[in-house]
Predict the 3D structure of the following.
Amino acid sequence: MHAASSRRRTLLTLLALCAELVLLAREHLHGGVVAHHLLANPDLPAVSNWWGLLLVPLLTWWTVGRIDRRARLAASGGSSLKPAPIIAFLCALAYGATLAALFAAGSPLVDYIFFGLLALALVVRLWHAEYLLGFVLAMSLVAGPILPAMFGAVIALLSWLVHTAARALWRRLRPGLA
């Protein structure tokens, strides 16, 4: 790993940690750190936002490392990353922010946006780490980081499985292209 890449990874991880500390300090000063129930059901266990101190920096570290790895692989093949990871991150951030705002407002559109992510997973490679990070960061304000990370991981796995199966089927049907 290059020194600049390593510095960028460390800086972004520290920035994520500081952002999480600010959010938790705000919560602490305004009534205490929030815990969110699984599936927003009070009968199910709750997960404290304190876990974000561990998850958000680790997810950021992992994401930057994955992007650097993919960029090196693309460069060795004479191409660049498409779509650009920053665009993917910003799109996921916008999607998560929209979902969070609708959820906070109690809008009935939440279900459509929520399940629309399943449909999106069929056509977009949502298993890339930048999508997960953007979604988790945006949803953290409303649902904390853990529950969006769990949901995002399921969506990422679904997306990867669908795309992998489609690629395998395509190769089987078109052996000359493999």
User: Anything to note?
Assistant: Residues 3-177 form one domain. Residues 146-173 form the longest helix (28 residues). The longest strand covers residues 35-37.
